[in-house]
Design goal:
44% helix; 33 helices; Nucleotidyltransferase, domain 5; elongated; Lambda Exonuclease, Chain A; alpha/beta
Length: 948
């Protein structure tokens, strides 16, 4: 493989150009590129001639022979062709490309050269200076020289010189320390150290080798160098046919790569990704960022799209101006001004024949500004900003506070108004693209800034007036185009759609686009304040607090009256009197006396076949005194403790409503107050929950022991808000029992301790804590499939992701069909293990360009031993739906009970929910279990079987 300096320079401009030149392709002649080449060639010839002047002929070599490279006869050489070996290339990567079955054959339009194990660098050195060392052991120095006609040295110029130095150093066998660039009309010399350049050049040569080894052409990318490239027409046509993202000028290579990783390769695809978002308050005062997706949407819809609130107010006389220059020399030779006067406009063209006339046209420019009443300078782009800065530095600023000084200081750049706020349906924000959309056309349709440089050069060489007139016409039309764009922006700022060349339907404000989340409660924006006032008067709070309070019947007074009338005196349904004890149980004396009489009322519920009713029991009892020891004591036959006021049925119904039916505690209290005439506060059901949870805590611990001792566990977790802090609820389930546990953090060491004795199969999601458990595991395929589907919906044009998801679905679908037919029997499922092995073998050999597909591949390979464990075991599900259903029960409870609970309150909820869900799975009534006061669910189930 041979890499020449021409190929290297082409690579610095474009990968495609490098590829085409390496194949010997020739493009259409580019006038500007040909002119630059001729100019550099003539500058090089004159420079070499100037170098050889005054030197003895024996010290000069022109042209130079390669075999004389190390001969000490010459001091200065020119036009030297040098070849050297770069390195031996391992072509295994190329062979991999050819051997991949999924790779397509290279296009015949761009046939690639066969790979070579040898890489040869070839460069045409323009000149080399040989410097003998004054020290005996020090090697002779060789200094490569390049001639550049421009004053400005680019990074590409430095790297090409570095390529010369690298090739020469390889040929000589030692490094080149210095290199020179001779530039500009004054032939100034720029001396550079090559140590930094050589490392950069080596990296690029490595990339060129990789590029040329690949049998496929590189991705086509348009860039700023296309205007000077001979392959521009061909590349641009292909980019338009492909609708390539590089058509959007301003999109960086990194942004294109990010879109490619999402499967977005065309402008049309990108247009569907824009979603209008509500800006946060902290950013509402700042400019909108630029959205390439919105630009693509404007192109697709062929309408101007406006984001934010662009403002362009011109308080004064607008003066649109445009400047023509020779950028490499920093010489401004033409200033055009267009001054608006009501319906007419005055055009000025200030011409400079040479650099000496530059100050003259600058003074004329200031005089014209001074003659305008309150001038406002209008320009397009940063080039004119640089012009104003340079000219004030070279020839001085106008007097401070003068009209001209104020105009220069407050010059308006229309591009800064457009950027990020106004999106025209064209691929760039260039003046010509936008003006043509607005209906303005140049007299020469192919005119451009590069063409203007050629015209100026033609005028400089021939002094023919036709070239000068072309430049003046071009500059005047640029000023007129700036005025057209200015009018458009003024109308857009005032929300007026009457712009020449457009209609009312050509404008879209992104606020009018459908929101990304249309189904949500939000404040309605009204067009008139009167409508907003009417709407506010319809709100419930307004009517209740503002209207009803003005009437005679105050709602608060009415509520107090109704509440007072609703209170019911609780009459006992049954009265029970406890008989006196026959003796004091401690000393055994039979003679005792009544000390004091008491009553106790217990509120409870009574169940019958048709429903429930309030049941009040009144107990009559006394305290007694022993005649022997004078001890006061209670009767031991009382069925309650000192603090109890409520019966067991009432506690059971409260827990059932709160846990099983997910009725909030406040509504439970309201239910008993309204229906049964009680006077509960919210604290009463909460106290019931704590009492019952403490009673059943051993029952949940016994359930957890049964789950750990079994052969299957489903595990999952979810978040919960505990007094503003995030905690976690864990659900552990088999096919018959469920237990919920709470932890303040998601740290998993306690899970490892809890399940260290478990030897069955754990079915879980992809949380990494479970991987540390020493037991067989089955990862939930439903979780995986949902994640893959979400990634695919986010990137609907990602063909790699589509292919990967389709292959995985084709692998899993037959397994599900087998499960549906034969159940979870390993002897029927083992036949699919060959398909699994084949799938992962194929997957490991694939390379994906998109991030989503690459991450999915990595995830599949990482968990390959845990995705299909159910094929080896009986009765092991392939999904974690049992745990998900258990978590869903808690999520519903968390949603319906509302409010922020404490940690102890959450633990009480989880104890009772564990019993409730276990009863549901076993087909038992949670209410009957609570009423039975049994602490073992299995014992309760057996008792029911015996009684049935």
């Amino acid at each position: 493989m041979k890499i020449t300096s021409q190929i290297f320079q082409a690579y610095l401009e474009c990968n495609t150009k490098c590829w085409l030149i390496s194949l010997g392709k020739e493009g259409k002649k580019n006038e500007y590129a040909a002119w630059v080449k001729d100019r550099n060639d003539s500058y090089y010839s004159a420079g070499v001639k100037r170098l050889f002047e005054g030197l003895p002929q024996k010290e000069c070599s022109f042209p130079f022979a390669h075999e004389d490279l190390k001969m000490p006869r010459w001091r200065l050489a020119a036009r030297l062709v040098v070849e050297s070996d770069f390195r031996d290339v391992n072509s295994s990567s190329f062979q991999k490309l050819l051997n991949r079955s999924h790779m397509k054959v290279a296009s015949q339009e761009y046939p690639s050269a066969s790979p070579s194990a040898r890489v040869v660098l070839t460069t045409h050195l323009q000149a080399v200076e040989r410097i003998d060392s004054k020290r005996e052991r020090r090697a002779t120095q060789y200094v490569p020289i390049r001639f550049i006609s421009s004053y400005k040295i680019t990074q590409a110029d430095r790297l090409v010189l570095g390529f010369d130095a690298l090739t020469l150093s390889k040929a000589l066998g030692h490094n080149i320390t210095y290199a020179k660039i001779i530039r500009g009309d004054d032939c100034s010399v720029l001396k550079m150290k090559t140590i930094v350049l050589l490392s950069k050049v080596r990296k690029r040569v490595e990339k060129i080798v990789t590029l040329l080894e690949n049998p496929f052409p590189p991705d086509l990318v348009l860039n700023r160098n296309c205007s000077e490239c001979e392959f521009k027409p061909e590349c641009h046509q292909k980019a338009v046919e492909k609708d390539d993202l590089s058509l959007l000028q301003g999109m960086t290579a990194k942004e294109r790569e990010m879109n490619h990783k999402k499967g977005i390769f065309t402008v049309n695809q990108l247009s569907y990704t824009f979603r209008p978002r509500r800006r946060p308050k902290r950013l509402r005062g700042k400019r909108e960022k630029y959205h390439h997706s919105l630009k693509a949407l404007a192109i697709r819809e062929k309408k101007i799209h406006v984001a934010g609130n662009p403002e362009l107010k011109i308080d004064g006389t607008p003066v649109c101006f445009d400047v023509e220059a020779l950028p490499d020399r920093g010489f401004y030779y033409l200033i055009g001004l267009r001054i608006r006067n009501n319906s007419s406009a005055d055009q000025y063209s200030l011409w400079a024949d040479s650099v000496n006339d530059e100050e003259v046209i600058w003074r004329q420019f200031l005089d014209i500004l001074a003659s305008v009443e309150n001038p406002v300078l209008i320009h397009y782009g940063s080039f004119e900003t640089t012009f104003l800065r340079d000219m004030t530095k070279r020839y001085g600023k106008p007097p401070e506070g003068s009209v001209t000084a104020n105009a220069i200081k407050s010059a308006v750049n229309l591009l800064s108004v457009i950027f990020g706020q106004i999106y025209f349906p064209c691929y760039s924000n260039g003046l010509k693209d936008i003006s043509r959309f607005l209906g303005f056309e140049w007299s020469d349709p192919n005119v451009s800034g590069i063409q203007a440089i050629l015209w100026r050069e033609d005028w400089h060489n021939s002094r023919e007036g036709i070239f000068k007139q072309k430049l003046i016409t071009y500059n005047s039309e640029d000023c007129e185009a700036i005025c057209r764009v200015m009018d458009c922006l003024i109308n857009l700022s005032s929300r007026n759609s009457r712009v020449p060349g457009t209609s009312a339907n050509d404008f879209v404000h992104i606020d009018s686009l459908p929101s990304a989340f249309p189904f949500r409660y939000r404040k309605i924006q009204f067009a008139f304040p009167e409508l907003e006032q009417i709407n506010s008067a319809a709100y419930w709070d307004y009517q209740r607090e503002r209207l009803l309070l003005k009437s005679n019947n105050s709602p608060k007074t009415a509520e107090r009256r109704v509440a007072k009338n609703r209170r019911i005196k609780l009459r006992p349904n049954k009265v029970i009197s406890f008989p006196a004890p026959s003796q004091y149980p401690t000393c055994g004396k039979a003679k005792i006396y009544k000390h004091q009489a008491y009553t106790k009322t217990i509120l409870d519920l009574k169940y019958n076949n048709s429903g429930i009713k309030r049941w009040v029991t009144k107990y009559l009892y006394c305290r007694y005194r022993c005649s022997a020891c004078n001890t006061v004591f209670w009767s031991s036959e009382r069925p309650w403790s000192r603090s109890e006021k409520f019966g067991e049925n009432l506690l059971a119904m409260t827990i059932y409503l709160n846990i099983a039916l997910r009725v909030p505690q406040q509504r439970v209290a309201t239910f008993f107050n309204e229906i049964l005439g009680l006077s509960f506060s919210r604290a009463v059901p909460n106290r019931f929950k704590s009492i019952v949870a403490l009673y059943y805590k051993p029952a949940t611990e016994k359930l957890m022991e049964k789950i750990i001792g079994g052969g299957l566990i489903h595990a999952d977790e979810t978040e919960v808000n505990v007094k503003g802090q995030i905690g976690y609820v864990w659900a552990f389930s088999n096919l018959k029992e469920v237990v919920y546990l709470y932890t303040p953090t998601r740290e998993g060491s306690w899970v490892l301790e809890l399940l260290k004795e478990f030897k069955g199969v754990l079915v879980s999601d992809f949380y990494s804590v479970y991987d540390s458990l020493n037991c067989p595991q089955q990862k939930c395929l439903i979780h995986l499939i949902r994640d893959m589907n979400d990634d695919l919906l986010k990137e609907p044009f990602n063909n790699e992701m589509k292919s990967l998801v389709a292959d995985f679905a084709a692998l899993v679908k037959p397994m599900i069909e087998t499960v549906d037919r034969f159940g979870l029997k390993a002897r029927f499922l083992r036949k699919h293990k060959k398909d699994v092995t084949r799938f992962f073998k194929s997957l490991s050999q694939q390379d994906f360009r998109t991030d989503a597909a690459a991450k999915c591949k990595l995830r599949l390979l990482k968990n390959r031993t845990q995705l299909f464990t159910f094929l080896d075991y009986d009765n092991i599900p392939w999904n974690n739906n049992n745990a998900e259903h258990a978590v869903k029960a808690f999520v519903y409870l968390r949603r319906d009970i509302r409010g922020n609970s404490t940690e102890s309150g959450i633990r009480d909820y989880l104890i009772l929910l564990s019993l409730c869900e276990t009863c549901r799975i076993k087909g038992l009534s949670f209410l009957e279990f609570l009423r039975s006061q049994e602490t073992d669910i299995d014992a309760f189930a057996q008792k029911r079987i015996r009684n049935s």
